[in-house]
Amino acid sequence: MNRFIADEMEKHGIEGLSASHGDILYLLFRKTRLTMAEISKGIHKDKSTVTALVDKLVRLGYVTKERDNGDTRVVYAALTRKGSELEPIFESISRDMLDAFYANVSEQEKEDLLRVLIKIYHNF
User: Per the structure, how many domains does the chain have?
Assistant: First the structure.
């Protein structure tokens, strides 16, 4: 799936981003301003990894970072206009990926898969 996503991003002229960058952007499409800790929790990566990923998004002009006025230890990431413009592209890539993922899978098989995955999830 990561290869599919990378290929699709390249087709849309989006270069230099990994799937983890996409995970961060996806979170920011849903809530346009998040702390680094919220991003870390949302993508299940440690804070130092998130910092490196967000810093690259800042260098590419997709995200800005700012410190909280009340607590300078807290850093927020927010989408730039350039970052916001990626949302329809990412939505299109997501739809295409799901179509490829579920090709030749019946509705019943999808429901069965979801039921089993939920069971597995609750084991942890």
Answer: 1
Is the pTM here over 0.85, yes or no? no
Residue 50 sits in a domain whose CATH number is 1.10.10.10
DSSP state for residue 72 in the 8-state scheme = T
Contacts of 113 (CB under 8 A, 6+ apart): 105
Q: How would DSSP label each residue in 25-53?
A: HHHHHHSSEEEHHHHHHHHT--HHHHHHH
Q: Tell me which residue range forms the domain holding 19.
A: 2-122
The conformational region for residue 13 under phi > 0 = left, psi -120 to 50 = alpha, else beta, is: left
Give the pLDDT band of residue 15 (cuts 50, 70, 90): confident
Residue 15 Ramachandran class (φ > 0 left, ψ -120 to 50 alpha, else beta): beta
